[in-house]
């Protein structure tokens, strides 16, 4: 497992660096311009490009050795960060920043490209788990990945604002340049021995006609090009897998409620400084939850574990704002973050077993694109509905209704009603999923399918 641990550590360093710089740039832009639209546009572009590029990234991962993909990602990130530094030194003027400033957009674009390309490594890491970790230990390895992601979230959320406040954008940029170089230098000596890559044309296979790779077939075979149609055929070849991806997408759609309202609700209860600190502290739940999974695993049926976790998420969503009590809200967020790594690890573990190794990159990428695309859409819709209808209604006539009695008094009862409704919808959907044929078929397929490549890679 030593190679896996080195790759995991290197990915954490890369993720922290890019996340740190991106959030620092967003904070810096708002503090420098006071333009909410500018920061919203940049954040929206960032999320949208990750969703769109994930399909392409997955194909790149499948068609190349994993070490080469990681080196390419790190090198590209470093190059674009260097270009942003050139723009900063020779072109950008902090005294004239505005939404129409060309130098600002070039500077931000370089950082966006560098940060988005680094996201390729997250898809690569999911396939590296399949390659380097024995099948029986993958759920625990995925839990460790969740813990590392929690560390990254904690570090970036706590230090990004502090860096801009105390050090400024220029020093922050130089720090991230140095960290990007360290990540690349640390990665270069790591050696991963992978199976030879064979195209379907070379193997005389025809994906999309009669032959669909399965875990029992040659796991080194890859299909040509992006081939979304072929990726869908692989997904459809696994009983219940499409339903799993759609279920995760629906969860992200519901998750738009939290993306849109968690910060506004928190700022109703706390000062901005205290809310930022508490949000960083609650992210310890990611680390704790991931660490628990890395020790205990997910049980014999990760599909069942995934649904049980979502039952817990639904109850948290229904209850953590049922009253305007600060401790209840913080406790709910902590519980949510603590159980989320189990859901993420379960989905990763399922895909790593039922999807052929050489097709995993594109399937991970396609699934990520579909799942991530749902969140920004629902975030916008929820924000509009809450602001235009629910918040005014609960502040007025709604306070005297049944819902007013359930949710009690306070200034954010409209947002609380949205939390309650989204949690109830999620609970109903999860219970229906438990009774579905797709759940039974995917559970059975997972139990009877095996894919262990760890013996072919150097540890």
From TrEMBL:
One of its GO terms (molecular function) is transmembrane transporter activity. The chain crosses the membrane at residues 7-30, 36-57, 69-91, 97-117, 144-165, 171-190, 234-254, 274-293, 305-322, 328-346, 366-395, 415-435. The keyword DNA damage does not apply. PROSITE patterns: MFS. GO terms for cellular component: plasma membrane. Its main location: membrane. It is a multi-pass membrane protein. It is found in: Cell membrane. It comes from the Bacteria. The keyword Ion transport does not apply. It holds the Pfam family MFS_1. Keywords: Cell membrane, Membrane, Transmembrane, Transmembrane helix. Residues 1-441 form the Major facilitator superfamily (MFS) profile domain. PANTHER family: INTEGRAL MEMBRANE EFFLUX PROTEIN-RELATED, MAJOR FACILITATOR SUPERFAMILY ASSOCIATED DOMAIN-CONTAINING PROTEIN. This is Multidrug resistance protein. The lineage of its organism: Bacteria, Bacillati, Actinomycetota, Actinomycetes, Mycobacteriales.
């Amino acid at each position: 497992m030593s190679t896996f641990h080195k790759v995991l550590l290197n990915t954490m360093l890369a993720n922290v660096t890019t996340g740190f710089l991106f959030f620092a740039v967003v904070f810096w832009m708002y503090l420098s311009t006071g333009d909410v639209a500018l920061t919203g546009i940049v954040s929206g572009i960032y999320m949208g490009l990750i969703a769109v590029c994930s399909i392409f990234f997955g194909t790149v991962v499948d068609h190349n050795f994993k070490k080469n993909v990681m080196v390419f990602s790190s090198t590209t990130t470093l190059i674009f960060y260097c270009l942003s530094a050139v723009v900063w030194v020779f072109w950008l003027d902090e005294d004239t920043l505005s939404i129409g400033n060309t130098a600002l957009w070039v500077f931000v674009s370089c950082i966006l490209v560098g940060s988005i390309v680094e996201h390729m490594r997250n898809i690569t890491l999911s396939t590296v788990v399949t390659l380097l970790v024995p099948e029986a230990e993958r759920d625990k390895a995925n839990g460790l990945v969740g813990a590392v992601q929690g560390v990254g979230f904690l570090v970036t959320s706590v230090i990004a604002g502090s860096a801009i406040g105390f050090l400024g954008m220029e020093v922050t940029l130089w720090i991230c340049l140095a960290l990007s170089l360290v990540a690349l230098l640390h990665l270069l000596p790591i050696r991963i021995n992978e199976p030879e890559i064979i195209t379907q044309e070379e193997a005389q296979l025809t994906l999309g006609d009669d032959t669909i790779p399965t875990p029992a077939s040659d796991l080194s075979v890859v299909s040509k090009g992006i081939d979304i149609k072929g990726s869908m055929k692989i997904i459809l070849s696994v009983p219940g897998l499409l339903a799993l991806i759609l279920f995760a997408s629906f969860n992200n759609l519901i998750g738009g409620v939290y993306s849109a309202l968690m910060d506004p609700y928190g700022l109703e209860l706390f000062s901005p400084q205290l809310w930022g600190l508490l949000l960083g502290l609650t992210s310890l739940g990611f680390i704790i939850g991931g660490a628990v999974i890395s020790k205990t695993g997910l049980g014999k049926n990760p599909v069942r574990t995934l649904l049980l976790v979502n039952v817990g998420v639904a109850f948290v969503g229904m209850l953590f704002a049922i009253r305007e009590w600060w401790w209840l809200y913080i406790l709910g967020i902590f519980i949510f973050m603590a159980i989320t790594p189990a859901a993420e690890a379960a989905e990763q573990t399922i895909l790593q077993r039922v999807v052929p190794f050489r097709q995993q990159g594109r399937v991970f990428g396609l699934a990520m694109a579909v799942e991530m695309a749902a969140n920004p859409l629902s975030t916008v819709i929820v924000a509009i509905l809450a602001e235009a209808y629910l918040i005014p209604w609960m502040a007025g006539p709604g306070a005297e209704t049944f819902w007013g009695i359930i949710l009690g008094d306070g200034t954010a009862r409209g947002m609380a009603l949205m939390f309650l409704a989204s949690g109830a919808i999620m609970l109903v959907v999860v219970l229906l999923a438990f009774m579905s044929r797709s759940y039974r078929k995917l559970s059975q397929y997972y139990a009877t399918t095996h894919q262990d490549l760890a013996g072919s890679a150097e540890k």
